[in-house]
Recover the amino acids of this structure.
């Protein structure tokens, strides 16, 4: 039975042999406040866990070696700095990091890269870096935000931020890192405009830095959601392997 390999646990000769035909998966997370109940490494934990499990599940079907690069643990999180507990890169620095890693892969013979993003603040940067890397380094680059392959109950904000969705996943993955969430009288409703992404620090302050109802999360639901995410992402990896 084939399995994916972690780049950091693989020797140089094996990597050199596999890279020309392989797909490299690069999880990208963040280290930032996730309310009073979740660890600051939530986004990196979820991105890395979903990516590795999906790669393992896809390995038998995709016909190419799958190499999972070390997760980038810090992302573009300046909007969380006022709350404390946050390490952040500017969007320009994160873009440079992604491009340098893509360059590293390309000069060693790699030809295919999928960026698996786990943080909402990284979305635009990952999209732009993927496009730039493809033209600069003759790479085929995909970008997926892991939550976009989810099939979750419509009333649950996905991914939210330290709300029910993310809290359920961490309860399934690392329950000892989760503190009890204090129930809110009502779910905070940040202002929205249809078709427009709004960015304002006032919104984050108004909701105390986290969304919806984390107290409603449970580990069993998190395990079900995690398994669905893994299966859906594995299917996407197989599809990418077929077209590239």
């Amino acid at each position: 039975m084939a399995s994916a390999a972690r780049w950091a646990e693989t020797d140089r000769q094996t990597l050199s042999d596999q890279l020309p035909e392989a797909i490299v998966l690069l999880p990208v997370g963040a280290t930032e406040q996730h309310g009073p109940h979740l660890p600051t490494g939530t986004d990196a934990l979820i991105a890395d866990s979903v990516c590795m499990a999906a790669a393992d599940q896809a390995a038998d079907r995709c016909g190419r070696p799958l190499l999972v690069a070390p997760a980038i643990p810090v992302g573009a999180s300046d909007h969380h700095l006022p709350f404390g507990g946050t390490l952040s890169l500017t969007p320009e620095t994160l873009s440079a990091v992604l491009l340098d890693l893509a360059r590293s892969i390309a000069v060693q013979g790699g030809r295919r890269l999928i960026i698996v993003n786990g943080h909402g603040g990284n979305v635009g940067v990952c999209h732009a870096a993927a496009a730039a890397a493809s033209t600069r380094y003759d790479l085929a680059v995909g970008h997926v935000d892991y939550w976009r392959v989810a099939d979750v109950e419509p009333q649950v904000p996905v991914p939210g931020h330290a709300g029910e969705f993310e809290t359920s996943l961490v309860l399934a993955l690392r329950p000892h890192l989760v503190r009890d969430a204090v129930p809110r009288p009502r779910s905070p409703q940040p202002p929205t405009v249809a078709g427009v992404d709004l960015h304002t620090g006032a919104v984050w302050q108004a909701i105390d830095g986290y969304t919806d109802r984390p107290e409603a999360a449970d580990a069993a639901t998190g395990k079900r959601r995690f398994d669905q995410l893994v299966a859906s992402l594995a299917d996407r990896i197989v599809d990418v392997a077929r077209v590239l």
Observations:
- The radius of gyration is 18 Å.
